[in-house]
Amino acid sequence: MQNVINALRVLEEVADRQPVGVGELARGLGLPKSTVQRSLKTLHEAGWIRPAGGEVTRWQVTSKALQVARRTELGLRDAAVPVMEELRQRTGETIHLMVPEGDAVVLIERLETDKPLRIVLPLGTRLPLHASANGKAVLAHLDRPLGDLPGYTDTTITDPRALRAELDAVLARGYADNRGEWRSDIAAVAAAVLAPGPVASLSVSTPASRMTEELRAEYGKLVAGAARTLAELLN
Known about the structure:
The chain is an alpha+beta fold. Helix content is 46%, strand content 23%. It has helices at residues 2-17, 22-29, 33-45, 63-91, 133-139, 160-173, 213-234; strands spanning 20-21, 49-52, 55-61, 94-101, 104-111, 126-128, 176-179, 186-194, 198-207. A hairpin with a 6-residue loop joins strand 7 and strand 8 (186-194).
């Protein structure tokens, strides 16, 4: 059983860090290199990973892993859309469903507001974990070091200590917010969907000019409730 658990941990780490070598994987996972090498050999033989750029010293996931992820994604969408629709009706704003992928969250579904002033993000848009409501909602539930934090706007949190304090606040109140940290014209509140780890996040997204402090708190409570509802459907 431990060999299976090690292989799954290695696969997850490859997906997060690809392309990645044995030494980096061993350090990140706290496992001996020999254990990591055995897991890599097993995953390679099973078709889950392949050498990156033909180099046997660095690895990346194959389309097999991506196909499984897509099938999982479709199930997530099916469960999420009714929850998203209710959230849209209660807020009148655009609702986003995003999934974590490495150091980002990726938009996989959206329900748009009927209001004429809106901000439309294409499906597949990647948002940084540290500079978006969806990203911070997920990051607050991940045990990982806060490394390089690039700035995107004047309000992006680039100090790891300040970000850690912000993530503690996210856990305390149950939702994250974005005050123009990725794009200055976008505001949002988001909550992680825990099943049991953060498999996705839901957000209410608006033009920054429309997000008052009162609405931020109201939408935050609504999105946190919607995320709990979706988590119950998935668990």
